[in-house]
Amino acid sequence: MRFLAYTQGNQTGVAVLSNGEWRGAADAGTTYAGSIQAWIEQGGEALWLAGDRLSREPIVDLANVDLLPPILRPGKIVCVGLNYADHTEESGYKQPDHPTLFPRFTSSLIAAGEPIVRPFVSETLDFEGELVAVIGRRGRHISKHDALDHVAGYSIFNDASIREFQHRTPQWTLGKNFDGTGSFGPWFVTADELPRGAAGLRIETRLNGEVVQASNTDQLIFDVATLVSTISEAITLEPGDLIVTGTPSGIGHARNPRLYMRAGDVVEVEIQSIGTLRNPVVDEPLQRAAS
Fold first, then answer.
1. Domain identity same for 252 and 206
2. Boundaries of each Fumarylacetoacetase-like C-terminal domain copy (predicted)?
3. Phi, psi of 44 (to 5 degrees)
């Protein structure tokens, strides 16, 4: 199943893809009640029952709604760095023996179609197309053998990064968490629709129509099962948590001359069998303080 979350006016809704049409309902005047995240958290057949119910709702015209991130408030967003060998090489690092992890915060999340914001404090806004795994079952000390049973499904992420701030210290967190830089969507695809572990999928990033990153999820050094198992050694994974699995080579910071995103650009991340995440880029208005 494929689900998306949206707003229309002052209403929030969810839709499911049924026979090639998006059908759904919002939170006023319909039988709708719930969210993708809530249904994942409920477990069992909740997600499937919701999809069946939504498939009988009216058609949702995506041209007339604004999309939301599929999981609006994930409890944790765990990102993985240096998880494609070619990206590790272009970044000048030695390939680590264990996954390199850093957090993203929900305050940075935006939806498909929403502008990625280049902050006025820096011009080093870079693109990173990535596969994201959505946790479906709570667990700690999860074995690699059982790890994929804890994944509800997948989506797409653009881990847009402010390189100047990322590289100020050995910890990357600040440069990875500017407001309006974590693009996520456009929809959530249940794991049964994809190859196990989302393996063997082409991943491509395009900037203004030009391919800037191209690889395959088979090239992940630490695959989804390994990431789930390794992260759960320390952290309890809960339904709705996100694991953003890493980006392949081609980032703008590694190019000569460097290629950073600017206002007016359009960036797309496409993953085979999932879809395309598309965002324009805008400049942040100059300001000194915000409440």
1. yes
2. 76-282
3. 60, -135
- Residue at a domain's end among 68, 100, 123: 68
Residue 23 shares a structural domain with residue 84? no
**Burial readout 59-90 (b: 16 or more C-beta within 10 A, e: otherwise):** ebeeeebebbbbbbebbbbbbbbbbbeebbeb
The residue segments making up the domain with residue 208 are 77-283
Residue-wise pLDDT tens for the chain (291 aa)? Answer: 999 999 998 899 999 999 999 999 887 555 556 899 999 999 999 999 999 999 999 999 999 999 999 999 999 999 999 999 989 899 888 999 999 999 999 999 999 999 999 999 999 999 999 999 999 999 999 999 999 999 999 999 999 999 999 999 989 999 999 999 999 999 999 999 999 999 999 999 999 999 999 999 999 999 999 999 999 999 999 999 999 999 999 999 999 999 999 999 999 999 999 999 999 999 999 876 555
Question: Do 112 and 215 fall into the same domain?
Answer: yes
CA angle 84, 87, 91 (to 5 degrees): 140
| 153 and 243 together in one domain | yes
For residues 97 and 238, membership in a common domain is answered with yes
**Full-prediction pTM beyond 0.90?**
yes
Both 54 and 84 in one domain: the answer is: no
Same domain, 179 and 151: yes
- Number of structural domains the chain divides into: 2
